[in-house]
Amino acid sequence: MNQDFYQELRGKIRDWLQSKGKAYAYADMLLVAPDLLHLLCKLSVDPRVPLLHKARLAATIAYFLSPFDLIPEGLLGPGGYLDDVALSAYVLHNVINAGTGEVAQEHWAGDGQLLQVLQSVLTLADRALGTGLWARLRRLGRGLAR
């Protein structure tokens, strides 16, 4: 049976985290990567989401899937998804606060409450990425929000 990209990404991250042991501090943040990507994709094609938001979501998807970003997965393995997860949470938080919360909740396939997960990711991102890298990602996210 062929796995879709969502399940394949989830498996790679889970296997990588298991190899790091329980002490890996950002496991929870990385484990939501497939869920956030899934939500970005679902919202970007939902007819109830305004076109401007769809453009932001599509740009975030492109960043997530690009091998050329601030923390490249090709060099760091799944740990390289930290910046992708952080940017995704930042953009999703802004899009949801702009009025698509109910639609986002309908498409949320992850565990826990969506807004709590996003807030947790944003808090961890502040610690995980350091102020310089996190500031660059937030600027990128604000640029997508315009």
Draw up the topology in text.
Elements: H1 5-20, H2 27-31, H3 33-45, H4 51-65, H5 73-76, H6 82-107, H7 114-145
Short description:
The chain is mostly helical and 146 residues long. It has helices at 5-20, 27-31, 33-45, 51-65, 73-76, 82-107, 114-145.
Supply the key terms.
single chain, about 150 residues, 7 helices, globular
Explain this structure.
The protein has 146 residues and is mainly alpha-helical. Helix content is 76%, strand content 0%. The protein is built from seven helices and no strands.
Mean pLDDT: 83
Enumerate how many helices there are, as a single number: 7
- Count the domains: 1
- Could you give the distance between the termini? 42 Å
Rg, Cα atoms, Å: 14 Å
Q: Which class of secondary structure composition applies to the elements?
A: mainly alpha
- C-alpha geometry: globular
Which spans of ≥5 residues are poorly predicted at pLDDT below 50? none
Number of strands: 0
Order of helices and strands: HHHHHHH
How is the main sheet built?
A: none
Strand content: under 5%
Binned, the helix content reads: over 70%
